[in-house]
Structures are given as C-alpha cells and as structure tokens.
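Shift notes (night). Ran DUF4349 domain-containing protein while the centrifuge was going.
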Amino acid sequence: MHTRRSARTGPVFAGMVLAAALAVTGCGAAGGGSASSADKAATPGAENARPGAADGVASGAGGAKSTNPSKATGTSVPAGSHIIRTASLTLQVKDVPKALDSARTAAVDAGGYVGNETTTRDGGGRERTRAVLRVPTDRYDAVLSSLEGTGKVVERTAKAEDVTDQVVDVESRVKSQRASVARVRKLMDQATKLSDVVSLEGELSTRESDLDALLAQQASLKDRTSLATITLSLSETPLKDAAKKSDAPGFVDALTGGWDAFVTMLRWIAVVFGVVLPFLLSAGLLLALWLRLARTGQPRRPGTEAAPASAGSLPVAPPVREEGGDED
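Came back to this:
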C-alpha cells in the first residue's frame, strides 16, 4: 500500500515542480522584459544627452548651428500654440463719432489700443472712419462681438494663422546665433595677431547683424501673436436717401423736378447773357465808330452841291414880240 501511494504521489509532485518552474520562468521573462523596456526608455535619454553635450562642445569649439531636435523641443517649444489673428469688420451706424468712441473704449478696456485712424466724407456729406484696433488675443472674440453690436454688419472677415513652428525655429536660431557671437568674442580676446583681430572683427560684425535680424523677426512674431488686429470701418446709414430711392416718383416730384430744371435753364441763360453782354456792347461801339469815320472820310462830288445854287440864278428869256405890232 505504501509503495502504490508513493508511485501515485511521485507524478503529482513532479507536475507541481514543473508548474512552479514554468511560473518562475514566466516571472523571470516578465522581469527581463520590464528591465529591457526600462533600458530602452533610459537609452533615448542617454542618447539625447550625448548629442546635447556634443552640441555644447561644438558650439564652444566653433559650431554656430545646432540641429538637435530633442533639445530644441525641450527648451524652445512653448506650452501653447502661437496664432496670428486678424479680422476686418465693416459697419453701418447712425452716429460715426459715437460708434468710434465705443470702439476705443472696448479696445482700451480689453488691454489694447487704437492704432491708425482715418476719417473722410463722401460726396453726400456722410462721414466714414477707418480704425485699426490692437487687442490681446484672449480678448479678441469678446471685443469683436462687442463691435458687431454697435451697428449693422455689412462685411466681416476673420483669419487665423498658426506660426508656432516659425516661432520655435526663430527662437532656436537666436540661441545658436548668440552662442556663435559669444564664441567669436572669446576668440577675439584670445587673439594676439592683428590680422586675426581684423578677421574676427569682420566675422563678429556679420554674426551680430544676423542676430539683430533674428531678434527683430522674433519681436515681430511676439507682437503679432500676443495682440490681435481688428480693422474697423464705420459709415453713416443713409436713411433719408434710402427712403427717397425706395419711393416711386409722383406728380409733386415730377413738378418739382421740372421747376428745378426750368430755373436751372433760366439761370444758365442769364449766365450766358452776362458773359456775352460785354462783348456785344464793345462790338456795337466799334461798329458805330467805324460808320462815323466812314461817313466823314468819304470824298465830295463837284456837281452835287453846285446844282442847287445855279438852279436859282438861271437867265430869264426876253418876252417875244408880235409881228403885227411892228408893222404898224
């Protein structure tokens, strides 16, 4: 009986030992996998640290550019996105100065300011104003909604441009350029030959110029991403003109128009007569003077003036005698 029980418990014990061995093997494999995963997770950090150190050495030895993406991402990428927001808004309002004052107040209360401002009048005497508002980007939507409630919206356009990559690139280039300028200055301090000093001065001037250009670009991006731009155009609502255009012309309108045309015609006739009158008077005087001179300068004929005088002194014929009287 003892032999049979030992024979039965032997295979069972062997199975339990095999299961325990398999469990231990599985745990070891899992631990090895975890260790290998941890090694892999730690390896990129070491690899990233090595290029960073290499970049630091390169920049100290004469490298002016850094192309380490992980380093740039870790130090230059901001928490949020950089977006340039612009809008153009055209409104019709009853009172342009009042609406402009409201727009100024909205911009200043939001922490912004009013930039360029232009005011003109059209042919009908209506006032038109164009103003550029700069407001913080976090108050952009609120200010735009406030402006839309000032009057009737005629046109509205909005634009958003994501320049996050450009901002990150410029920041990285600024850091690299500053390191390059510092290196050249250090070399100038260590230079002993005049030729080396002259050459390094030219190189330093070039790199400082490039750095100034990058700083100006960085400042421009910061200004455009921190402050949104709203171009506001205000014009008076032509209420009376719109009413006149909408109504059909009647008899009174036609009579008024005809009378205005008649008066205008008389006015122009009077103007033309007033313009021509001096010329007519001058022409009449010249004509009268010419006729007078023509009469006085005409030569006299000899028979015309002597005929009346001789007509009165003609000889009288003697009376005729009768023949019968003579014979007696």
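The beta strands are 83-93, 113-121, 127-136, 152-162, 227-236. DSSP finds ten helices and five strands in the chain.
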